[in-house]
Design brief:
This protein has two domains: about 1-115 and about 185-255 and about 550-680, Thrombin, subunit H (Beta Barrel); about 260-540, no CATH class. The protein contains 25 helices and 20 strands.
Length: about 675
C-alpha cells in the first residue's frame, strides 16, 4: 500500500510539471510524441496523430473509431444500447436477440444519434480571457458565454454539417475552438445480445477479469449513402500480446485533478455524498419498477444500467477521498506548488492568492449547490419527456434573443444538436417517466426542505406523485409531430399550449433560471476567475508541457497491455473465451448470451476476449479505439476498474487499468456466433 500511495503522490506532482509514462489524457495539439516514443519504444509522428484524430468519432457522450472506407464505426454495445432499445419493442426485442442484419440494406437509423469527427483545433484564449476582463459575478459569466457564442457562430454559422465548440482547458488557462464534421444519419450495423456485453452484470461491472463482448458497429450516412472514409483504422484480428504498446483515442468526460484541496474537500463532504444518496434511491425505485413485470424490466433497463454505473463510479471515488494518505499526498503537491509561486514576487503579485480565494468560496458553494443540482443538473430525474419539454420551452424563450445573449446551449452553432435530439422519432414510456419525475420532485422537496421558497412554485398544491402522474400521463410530447410543431411555432406556440408538461416547464422557469443565475454568478464566475489565475501560475512555474483536465473532448492516452498486483493478488492482463465458459453458471448474471453459447464449440477457447491496459481513462472513454503503433485497431475500451475511479483526482500507474474488448474476440463472435460474414469482408478479414 505504501508503494501505491507513493505512486499516487508522484502523479499529483507530475500533473503540475511533466506527466509520467502512461499518465495523461492529452489533447491532439499538445501530445508528447517524443515521450511516448521513448516510453513505449515506438515511432509515431504527426502524420500518425492526424490519421488517428480523423478516424476517431464522438458519439454523444462516448467514443468510436472508423474501421472501413465506407463509414463503419466500432464502438461498444453499451454505447449503442440506446439505439438498440429505440429500435426494439417488447415483442421484437433486439436487446435480447441482438441486431444482426444480413446485409447493409437492413441497417437501421439510430434515432437522435450524432457522430462527430474533430477536423480542426484553433486557439481563442486571448478573445475569451479579454471578454471577462474587469468583470465579476453574473456579468463575467454572461460576457464569457456571449463571446463563446460569437466565436462559434463566426466559425460555423448555421451549417448543420459542422459543429463548433469553445472548449475550456486548464480550468481557464486556455480556450480552444474545436470544429467537428457532424453526421446526423447514424445507422446500427450490428449489436450482440446485451447479455453478451454485460456478462456478470453489476457484480462484474468496473472489475477485471472481465468476459464481455462489449462491441457494436454503427455506420455514418449522408444523402442516404454511406460516407466515404478512406482514412480509417485498419482491422487487426491478431491476438494482442502482454506488454504490447497501445493508444486510446476518445472523449473522456471529466477529471478534477486540477482542483485545489479546498475544492476537493467540498467534493468529499458535500457534492459527492449528495449525488451518491440521490443515485442510490433512484436505483432502488427503478429496480422496484422493473420487478413489477417484464415490460417494465424492458423499458427501465437503460436507466438502471446508467444509474448503477454512476453509483459505482462514485463509490470508487469516495474510497480515494477517504484515503488519508491519498489526500495527504495531494496536499503535499499543492504546498510545493504554492511555495514555488511564493518564491517569485512578480508572479505572486500578478496572480494574487487564488488558493485562498477558492477556499473562501466553498461556504457559498455548499449553500448553493443542492439547489443548483436538484433544479438544474438533475432536473426531471432523467425523464426523456421532461428533457424534451425543457428544450422546447427554453428554446422558445432563448431563440428570439441575439445569439450572444442566449444561454450557451441554445446558441446558433448548437441548435442543430438540440433539434436532432428533440425531433428524433423514438419510443416513449410514460410509466417510466412518471417514476423518474416522482423521484425527482420528492427528492427536491426533501433536500431543499418544504419551506424553501422554490418548492411551492415547483409543486403547487399537488404531491410529487400526483403531479408526476398528471404530467407523464397527460403530455402529448411522445408524438414527434407535436414536438416539431411546438419547436417551429416558437414562443407563441408554447404560450398557447395546453400540454401539462409544457405548462409545468413554463411555470417553473423563473425559479430554475434564478437558481442557475445565482449559482453561476456567486460560485462559478469567481471560481473561473481564481482558476484562471492558478493556470497562469502553473504555466509560469512549470511551462506548457502538461496535460489539462478531461472535458469531454477528444484526447489521446497511451500505455501497455498489462495486469497488476494489489493487496497480494496478481491479476493477469487478459481473459479468454475458455475463461468465459468456466465462469458461466447458467444463472443470471452469469448466464452466457444464447447465440454465444451456441457457438461454444466453434470459438477456440484460447481466443483472447478482454485485456487490461495501463492507459489513462475516465467515464466517456467508452468505445475509444485501442490502436497499435502501426495505426491499426486492436480493440475498444469499454470499462475500467473500481480502483481506477480515483482517476478523477490522480493517476496511479500501479493499479489504474482500462478494460478493452479485443478485435480478436469481435472477429470470433462475428464469424462463429452471429453470421456477420459481410462485415468481416468489409473489415478485410478472411
Amino acid at each position: 500500500m505504501r508503494r501505491s500511495n507513493l505512486f499516487l503522490a508522484s502523479s499529483f506532482v507530475l500533473l503540475s510539471t511533466m506527466a509520467s509514462a502512461e499518465e495523461g489524457m492529452w489533447t491532439f495539439d499538445n501530445f508528447p510524441i517524443a515521450a511516448a516514443n521513448r516510453d513505449l519504444g515506438v515511432s509515431i509522428d504527426q502524420k500518425w496523430l492526424d490519421k488517428v484524430r480523423l478516424a476517431s468519432v464522438r458519439l454523444g457522450g462516448a467514443s468510436g473509431g472508423l474501421v472501413s472506407s465506407e463509414g463503419l464505426i466500432l464502438t461498444n454495445e453499451h454505447v449503442a444500447s440506446r439505439c438498440v432499445e429505440d429500435l426494439s419493442m417488447p415483442e421484437r426485442n433486439y436487446v435480447q436477440t441482438g441486431f444482426t442484419p444480413a446485409s447493409r440494406a437492413e441497417e437501421r437509423k439510430c434515432p437522435g444519434m450524432v457522430a462527430e469527427v474533430l477536423t480542426n483545433i484553433g486557439d481563442v484564449t486571448q478573445r475569451m480571457q479579454a471578454a471577462g476582463g474587469g468583470l465579476s459575478g453574473d456579468a463575467f459569466t454572461k460576457a464569457r458565454d456571449a463571446e463563446a457564442g460569437r466565436i462559434e457562430a463566426e466559425a460555423c454559422g448555421s451549417d448543420k454539417t459542422r459543429r463548433c465548440q469553445v472548449v475550456t482547458l486548464y480550468r481557464g488557462g486556455q480556450f480552444k475552438l474545436y470544429t467537428y464534421r457532424r453526421y446526423a444519419d447514424v445507422r446500427l450495423a450490428f449489436a450482440p445480445e446485451h447479455r453478451a456485453s454485460a456478462f456478470g452484470g453489476d457484480l462484474d461491472n468496473f472489475s477485471f477479469p472481465r468476459f464481455a463482448v462489449d462491441a457494436a458497429f454503427v455506420r455514418i450516412y449522408e444523402n442516404d449513402r454511406p460516407v466515404k472514409t478512406p482514412g480509417f483504422l485498419r482491422w487487426n484480428p491478431a491476438p494482442p500480446q502482454e506488454n504490447q504498446p497501445v493508444f486510446l483515442s476518445g472523449s473522456p468526460g471529466a477529471t478534477q485533478r486540477l482542483l485545489t484541496q479546498a475544492q476537493l474537500g467540498t467534493v468529499q463532504d458535500v457534492t459527492l455524498p449528495l449525488e451518491q444518496l440521490i443515485n442510490s434511491e433512484l436505483r432502488g425505485r427503478l429496480l422496484r419498477f422493473s420487478h413489477e413485470n417484464e415490460r417494465n424490466a424492458f423499458i427501465a433497463g437503460q436507466a438502471i444500467s446508467g444509474v448503477e454505473n454512476t453509483y459505482k463510479r462514485g463509490f470508487g471515488r469516495q474510497q480515494s477521498l477517504i484515503d488519508a494518505r491519498f489526500m495527504a499526498r495531494r496536499a503535499e503537491a499543492e504546498a510545493a506548488f504554492r511555495a514555488k509561486v511564493q518564491a517569485d514576487p512578480a508572479l505572486r503579485q500578478s496572480i494574487g492568492d487564488p488558493w485562498t480565494d477558492l477556499a473562501n468560496l466553498q461556504p457559498e458553494m455548499v449553500r448553493l449547490y443542492p439547489g443548483y443540482y436538484m433544479l438544474e443538473t438533475r432536473a426531471g430525474g432523467g425523464s426523456q419527456l421532461f428533457s424534451w419539454a425543457k428544450d422546447i420551452v427554453r428554446g422558445a424563450q432563448e431563440r428570439p434573443k441575439a445569439n450572444a445573449e442566449r444561454l450557451p446551449e441554445y446558441g446558433d452553432a448548437r441548435l442543430a444538436q438540440v433539434e436532432n435530439g428533440l425531433l428524433a422519432t423514438r419510443p416513449t414510456y410514460p410509466a417510466l417517466d412518471e417514476v423518474q419525475l416522482a423521484w425527482w420532485l420528492s427528492k427536491a422537496r426533501e433536500i431543499l426542505t418544504v419551506d424553501d421558497p422554490r418548492i411551492a412554485p415547483l409543486l403547487g398544491k399537488e404531491s410529487p406523485e400526483a403531479l408526476a402522474a398528471r404530467l407523464a400521463r397527460g403530455t402529448r410530447l411522445g408524438d414527434p409531430a407535436v414536438r416539431k410543431a411546438l419547436w417551429e411555432g416558437g414562443l407563441p406556440a408554447v404560450q398557447a399550449s395546453d400540454d401539462p408538461l409544457i405548462q409545468f416547464l413554463a411555470r417553473i422557469q423563473d425559479v430554475t433560471r434564478a437558481t442557475r443565475t445565482e449559482y453561476e454568478g456567486k460560485v462559478q464566475a469567481p471560481t473561473d476567475r481564481a482558476s484562471e489565475a492558478l493556470a497562469k501560475a502553473r504555466f509560469a512555474v512549470f511551462g506548457t508541457s502538461l496535460y489539462p483536465d478531461a472535458t469531454g473532448t477528444l484526447r489521446l492516452t497511451y500505455g501497455r497491455l498489462k495486469g497488476w498486483t494489489y493487496q497480494g493478488r496478481t491479476v493477469p492482463y487478459a481473459t479468454t473465451f475458455g475463461g468465459l465458459w468456466q465462469r458461466a453458471t447458467g444463472a443470471e448474471p452469469f448466464d452466457v448470451a444464447p447465440r454465444l453459447l451456441a457457438a461454444k464449440d466453434r470459438i477456440p477457447g484460447a481466443t483472447i476476449l478482454d485485456v487490461a491496459a495501463s492507459t489513462d481513462t475516465i467515464g466517456g472513454s467508452s468505445g475509444s479505439p485501442a490502436i497499435n503503433a502501426r495505426g491499426e485497431i486492436i480493440g475498444a475500451n469499454f470499462d475500467s476498474t473500481v480502483l481506477t475511479q480515483r482517476n478523477a483526482y490522480g493517476y496511479d500507474p500501479e493499479i489504474n487499468r482500462s478494460v478493452l474488448v479485443t478485435t480478436s474476440a469481435v472477429t470470433a463472435a462475428l464469424r462463429h456466433a452471429y453470421g456477420q460474414g459481410h462485415l468481416l469482408r468489409e473489415l478485410g478479414v478472411r
